[in-house]
Amino acid sequence: MIRFDYEEPRTLAEASAVLKAHAGRASVLAGGTDLLVEIKEHLRRVHCVVNIKRIPGLDAVTFDAATGLRFGALTTARRIELDADVARHHPGLRQATRELGSIQVRHRATVVGNVCRASPSADTLPPLIADGAVIEIGNGTSTREMLLEDFFTGPGKTALQPGELVLAIRLPPAPARTGRIYIKHGRRRAMELATVGVAVSITLDEARICTKARIALGAVAATPIRARDSEAALEGRVVDATIIAHAADLAMAASRPISNVRASAAYRREMVSVLTRRALEQALATIP
Amino acid sequence: MSFDVIGRSVKRNDVVEKITGSARYAGDVRLPGMLYARTLRSNMAHATIRSIDTSRALALPGVKAVLTHENVPRVLHYGSPHPRSASLAQDQYILDNKVRYWGECVAAVAAISEEIAEEALELIDVVYDPLPVMATIEAALAAGATPIHDVGPGGNLVAPPIKVRRGDIERGFAEADLVIEGEYEGGRPTPAYMEPNVCVCHWEHTGEHNSAASDRSGDKLTVHISTQTAFMVRGILAEVLGLPLNQVRVIVDHMGGGFGAKQDLFQSEFLCALLSRETRRPVMLEYTRKETFLGGRSRHPVKIWLKQGFKRDGTLTARQARVVFNSGAYGSHGPGVTAVGTTAMTSLYRCENIELEGMCVYTNAPIAGAFRGYGVVQTYYALDIQMDEAAEQLGIDPALLKRKNAVRAGDLAPSGHPLVGHGLEDCIDRGMQEVNWPKTRTHQRSSDGARRFGWGIGCEMHGSSAYPGIKEQGNAIVKLNEDGTAVLLTGTAGLGTGAHTALAQIVAEELGIPFERVSVMHGDTDTVPWDIGAFASHTTYMGGRAAQMAATEVKRQLLERAAEKLEVAAEELELRKGIISVRGTDIHLSVAEALGVARGQPAAHLVGSATYTPTKSYSFGAHFAEVAVDVETGHIEVLQVTPVHEVGRVIHPLAAAGQVEGGIQQGIGHTLSENYEIDPVTGKSLNAGFVDYKMPLSMDMPPIHTILLETAPDPGGPWGAKGIGEDPIIAIGPAIANAVHNAIGVRFRHYPITPEDVLNALRAQKTEVA
């Protein structure tokens, strides 16, 4: 019998108090699609499960042309997948949510849950990072925020401190002439874990000079990473096939994948190059 | 011939239960006072057990019994209990003081909840003395390798090698204009049936309460189980546990698949029964998904060396092969798979000079067992790919080369019988016509970015029934009720294929009554006639023929009674759609009128019983597949498949097509992504679960244009019907591999063909060209 405490806080303050009381030994339950499987399969020892679904207001999704998109910690992947503003401004994120688990899972799983699980292969992380996501964190009395790319500290590890809870994720509005793509690489079309995930957000000026590039890679390091050298190679340049190939190779050089039963490190590295190139080509093709 | 019931896709007789969820599976059984059992599995691949201490587990509140090798009967038994068959190995104990693979059961716990049983497992202290691990064929066959068993012929062989010689192999190669040889390798796909193994055992002690423990005269063991072979389970439980057959009752209702693997005993059935005996309560033992990998059965991994000689015109002159199957830790169906897989290479493509050797090797790996295709998937993969290679080198179209050499009427089948009809040629011809071959292959779609396209053909044949390896017998009883309805009693299990619908159709057709008036009683060894089990693609062929014969018998009795009533000779009567009429007149009776109460006489009780002992028939198939290969990612996608199967007579077109589609899905998985991987050094299982064991899902399936032919009916089956169960998984593999070669010019001789394999091969190809 797996025994653990179970709490259902009604407010953020209550939630933080419970989380603080169990200092790092509490597991937050939102969608539960990962947590419950881990508990049942003995992959995670739980001491206290804190169900945050009774806290009001955490599932809000708002969009404002000036400030962008904001969605709360209880927003399901399915909600994001079907959101018209997400489709228009964050097609990479939409693609990632479309390919996360199954439809049944997406109806329960939350995007913030996917983020807090901090799996290096999590689908939503690369497009969120590429789109410049900011994560809002509360501890019951105050809030702080940080760039999502700085949130991950290792596989399954985040910058959250005892008593802290993620409140929402914010995505700034996309500049005009921005192309965004997420490519998930796996063996099948659904119910798959990414062996490599590549997200690109690229902005061109009227002369097709790249003014901003963000490339985020999943499943090729202990955390999702940005391919900063690739971005630098693209910015300020007219993007042609040679530059794209160079950027793809720099992304490959930035990746530090492991070998496991899903794929070898060498294959993953090679795929980073192929998929970065494809993602850039596809993203550019969407910019008139 | 015109038919009223067969050849139509009637509504399956279990469809409402399945769709509403009311269908009962063994895992749905809940008995009063039922306990839950879990098994402890070894974390060593090869070791002796120095000590096993269960005292802490027994002390846990809620734990009712713990079994180890120290307190279960030590009886050497077959892993799969076919009676006295040469196909199987007798090398298992319920629990042994030695473990031979990573994940073997070493103890079992019964408790008041599954969670407590699970917790108790962690309280069992086992100390192992490790032995050298030989997880591969090479390690197990190495000089001086530690024997894994002290039974068998020695040298870690499961059985003495199979040798087949025909004609003069030296002369055959001397006459050849082209000789091709190659090495082929098959991975470890598993059946991954939807319903994990499960049984509920209830050992009742109805005798004197104080009678000695050894007095079992009043006992009754009832077993609810998901098995393909209820009577075999009954037989071996009775034998090992020391009960007569009438004190063991095995009940199988609905099943969620078996694919051959559920012919075996998995240690758990004995353990569950013994836990029930010990606790005097019903006990359920259900595998987790992980356990279906650890303790289940896989296809035999294989290494094949194959060499063939050809004349310039494509005529085969010689075939030589050495096949080595990896049986894993126990023999299970190893001898049968080795015999069937190896001897299958005598056929498919005609050749007079043949020399084959088949071996089966024990290793410290998970147990390989019976699995749809039974050794033939492996050997025909090699054979068919080499035919494609020969076609390429000879400059002949591969479909035409295969057709030229296709086995046909009168040729000797692997079973030693002359073949009936021209099924393989018919399949190739029809497929070529359907896909517009060879034009479709020679005029490929042009490359699309990194995607290259290709077409391939794969061929197969497969026997219905396990003859001559197992001498089989099909039995059936048909009872006619006084209202004109009928009940078929059959022992054959319904794995989920719709077999009971097909059997009911056969009875309805033969009796001349509507399909809806036939019901099927199955899966209770105390009431239905003895059955060997549902395997070897024989349910329709053998069980169907037995059902037809029983229906013929009861129809004879019915017409005799009707003849008396109508005062005509029985020969003058015919029965169709429930009406008995005198030929050439408008005099008629309904079946109910013929049987029912009349002139103060009670209704007739008519029962027909039949036994059918088949030999074997062969079904044929040719699969035409189109693939796309991404030369940058190595990803292979199957775009479409046109499978053509010759099955003698189609009983239920939709169910038959369903078998074909399912076989292709499974075959695509085996060829491209499914591989249960074992660490070659430690023997540890690396992907025991659906996260990393990659089966294709519905979204990965290509369009399948199934064609069923009835051009070579077999006199042994009902109206010529032959099997369709295993055939569809055999030809798809080589069809894909051959299509990949057509697309990118790389010849793969193994499965699964992974994206990394594709990229590595393309790199090697580039180096070669440079």
Briefly, what is this?
The complex is a heterodimer of chains A (288) and B (770). With 288 residues, chain A is of the alpha+beta class. Chain A folds into 3 domains: 5-51, 2-Layer Sandwich (Uridine Diphospho-n-acetylenolpyruvylglucosamine Reductase, domain 2); 61-171, 2-Layer Sandwich (Uridine Diphospho-n-acetylenolpyruvylglucosamine Reductase, domain 3); 179-285, Enolase-like, domain 1, CATH 3.30.390.
Explain what this protein looks like in three dimensions:
The complex is a heterodimer of chains A (288) and B (770). By secondary structure, chain A is α+β, with helices and mostly antiparallel strands. Chain A has 3 domains: 5-51, Uridine Diphospho-n-acetylenolpyruvylglucosamine Reductase, domain 2 (2-Layer Sandwich), CATH 3.30.43; 61-171, 2-Layer Sandwich (Uridine Diphospho-n-acetylenolpyruvylglucosamine Reductase, domain 3), CATH 3.30.465.10; 179-285, Enolase-like, domain 1. Chain A is built from 11 helices and 14 strands. Chain A has helices spanning 12-21, 35-40, 77-81, 84-89, 91-98, 103-108, 111-117, 125-130, 228-234, 241-254, 265-285, and strands spanning 5-7, 26-29, 48-51, 61-64, 68-72, 134-138, 143-147, 152-154, 157-158, 165-171, 178-185, 196-204, 210-218, 225-226. In chain A, the strands form 4 sheets. Chain A has a 5-stranded antiparallel sheet with strand order 4-5-10-6-7. In chain A, strands 11-12-13-14 form a 4-stranded antiparallel sheet. In chain A, a hairpin with a 5-residue loop joins β12 and β13. The longest helix of chain A is centred in the last third of the chain and has 21 residues, at 265-285. The radius of gyration of chain A is 19 Å and the shape is globular. In chain A, 51% of the residues are buried. The mean pLDDT of chain A is 96. Chain B has 770 residues and is of the alpha+beta class. Chain B has 3 domains: 15-19 and 473-612, Aldehyde Oxidoreductase, domain 4 (2-Layer Sandwich), CATH 3.30.365.10; 31-131 and 194-257 and 261-294, Alpha-Beta Complex (Aldehyde Oxidoreductase, domain 3); 302-468 and 615-769, 2-Layer Sandwich (Aldehyde Oxidoreductase, domain 4), CATH 3.30.365. Helices cover 27% and strands 24% of the residues of chain B. In chain B, the strands form 7 sheets. In chain B, strands 3-7-1-14-11-12-13 form a 7-stranded mixed sheet, with helices on both faces. The longest helix of chain B has 28 residues, at 539-566. The radius of gyration of chain B is 27 Å and the shape is globular. The termini of chain B are far apart.
